[in-house]
Give the backbone structure.
Amino acid sequence: MATSPPVQRNPDRTRRRLLQAAIKLFAKQGFHAVSVDEIVDLAKVNKRMVYHYFGSKDALFEAALVEVYGRIESIEFHAVELGRSPTEKLARLLESYFKFLDEEPEFTRLLQWENLEKGRHLTKENHLLTKNPFFERFQAIVQAGIASGEFRAELDVAHLLIHFIGLCFIYHSNRFSLSQSLNLDLGNAEVKQQGLKQVLALVFEGIARR
């Protein structure tokens, strides 16, 4: 009598399914409104796998944050290598932020939920969302632009990166309230392209050496 082959376990796939289910649910409902049971039901795995791979619901939420944050970090590094001059590198970065936020709404939602939690999962001890790796690259590009005479010498690089992120982020974080109050559909591709065009003009007219 033939016997069925044993079921092959795939730990990486199980962990990935849990993480993707958690990202989807946490982004939609926030940390407190999601139960571990809901996550395992969506992932279709045994409940004990949550504690085996992550240890707790809090740790699973932290892993979800790290996952979506890693997505944006990878496009940041890629984007700045597409330009030749410092100005082109930073222009590609702004364009990539607009594109990424449009394609990855879970990133925006998860960060909004975590900010409502006052960043309690992002303590200084765990350094989950450090910007240091990319900030060093960003700083080098700005310094190169200053040295070449493209940018003003007195720029505060940390605040400049905040401005880059904020100018792009608000089109997605405040999409619905701004669309309603301004009678402007921020979900429309043409409207977002107009916004990006003005962001580019504002930024580079503002940081250009006079």
